[in-house]
Amino acid sequence: MIILETVAVAFAMFSAIPVPQPAWNEKNMRYVLCAFPLVGVVCAVAYGLWAALCGNWPVPDLLEAAGYCLAPVLITGGIHLDGYADTCDALASYADAAKRQEILKDPHCGAFALICVCSYFVAYFALCASLTMDARTLACLGLGFVLERALSGWAVATLPLAKNTGLAHTFATAADRRMVRWILAVLAFVLSAALMAVGGMAGILMVAAMLFVLWRYHTVAQKQFGGISGDLAGWFLQKAELWMLAALVLCRIVEGTL
Fold first, then answer.
1. Burial letters for 219-241: b for 16+ Cβ neighbours within 10 Å, e otherwise?
2. Neighbour tally for 252: CB within 10 Å
3. H-type alpha helices, the chain
4. Residue 168 pLDDT class (50, 70, 90 cuts)
5. Residue 161, SS3?
6. Higher confidence at residue 103 or residue 182?
7. What is d(CA 163, CA 227) in angstroms, rounded to the nearest whole number?
8. Are 67 and 54 in contact (CB under 8 A)?
9. How many CB atoms sit inside 10 A of residue 88's CB?
10. What is the pLDDT of residues 47-96, one digit of tens each?
């Protein structure tokens, strides 16, 4: 029962999928970060189902690409994209760390947030439209969805927090941080190995892109905000998703298989 409650809490928080919502308590919050990658599994399944539908019906290419672009947002409810937008707004302010934290808490959407989100979707749509969604490509993208969430959970349990409030603090303090770090680190290692085995050079480039974004996440969080937060975690996940997709497209271009 505790395992099911933990999974339910993870999906209630990190997805728009309707699930029973148990009351949060010490037991079902302890390993909720370990259940976070399961949302990535659902994204991977959604990609597979959409690819099967498009393979059996005369779906226009641009509509097919739009489906791949929007599926993760529909599944997550845009929670990570919201953090991405807020963080872009804060970074564009060139203010001090305290002012950036205030911008993150501001419920209004600034001009730079809108510009960055629009640019993000144009890039994501173009990259999806550039790929042939065969089994190998879908496997790489599916593993990427799970990997980025494993590393996002690992970062929340490992990296210094910017403040003693907010969702990141709630999940970090409720977690058995030592055990969560080990579980997610092992999971991330296994997923990275699988991605490199399935994708070959494309998989290697995707893992490299992910690690670069993780390093960038840590650097920006420490220097610009004084630590990580829930919004920054969303910023990391969205950037990791886009960069891994770009790495896959780049490899396909070099291979001449687009």
1. ebbeebbbbbbbbbbbbbbbbbb
2. 16
3. 2-14, 26-29, 32-35, 37-56, 61-76, 79-92, 97-105, 111-129, 135-158, 167-174, 177-199, 201-220, 230-255
4. confident
5. strand
6. 182
7. 8
8. yes
9. 23
10. 999 999 999 999 999 999 999 999 999 999 999 999 999 999 888 887 77
CA angle, 85 then 162 then 124, to 5°: 25
Helices (H), 57-96: 61-76, 79-92
Contact 25, 2 (CB under 8 A): no
Say which amino acid occupies 218: H
Contacts for 104 with CB less than 8 Å, ≥ 6 apart: 86, 87, 90, 225, 229, 231
Backbone angles phi, psi at 228, to 5 degrees: -85, 165
The full DSSP string for 110-130 is PHHHHHHHHHHHHHHHHHHHT
Beta bridge pairs of residue 41: none
Side chain identity, residue 54: C
Q: What does the pLDDT read at residue 78? A: 93
Rounded CA gap, 258 and 154, in Å?
34
